[in-house]
Each structure stands twice: as structure tokens, then as C-alpha cells.
Amino acid sequence: MLDAEANTGVTLTESYAMTPTAAVSGLYFAHPDAKYFGLGKVERDQVADYAVRKGMDLAIMERWLAPNLNYEPTTTGGAAAA
Length: 82
Hints:
There is one protein chain. By secondary structure, this protein is mostly helical. It has a domain at about 40-80. It has three helices and two strands; from the N terminus they run αββαα. It has helices at about 5-10, 45-55, 60-65; strands spanning about 10, 20. Strands 1-2 form a two-stranded antiparallel sheet. The radius of gyration is 17 Å and the shape is extended.
């Protein structure tokens, strides 16, 4: 409807990241008492459980969460397992 790709030159990757990387879009909410915090990396059992709950393939879930993993993915596909 907006023909955003043609009008802006911004596209989405298969994991829905915007390219070029300089393109930024978001909703930002602020509060004077708000504080930022890190959550740390996630382990294999957490990703497997999440994949089962979402009904998604473990390999796809690992690809989406790759920057947040605390392990090297070894899955090559197949059904999500807990």
C-alpha cells in the first residue's frame, strides 16, 4: 500500500531486520525512573523449550536468536525437541 521499499530503498531480511543497517525504526517510550539492563545469553535448553512452545523448528529458532545464544548451534533442522 505504501510501496515502502520503492519509496525508501529499505528492505527486510528473512529474519525481518531492516537493510541498509543505517535504517532504524522503532517506538521509544521513556520514563525518568527507567533503567536499562542486560539479560545475558540463553542456553540450549531455554531455546529448545521456547521452540516447542512456539511450535517452531529448533534450527530456525537458533538462527533467529543467534546473537543471544550462549552456545554454538549444532542443529541442522528437524522438529523442535525439549
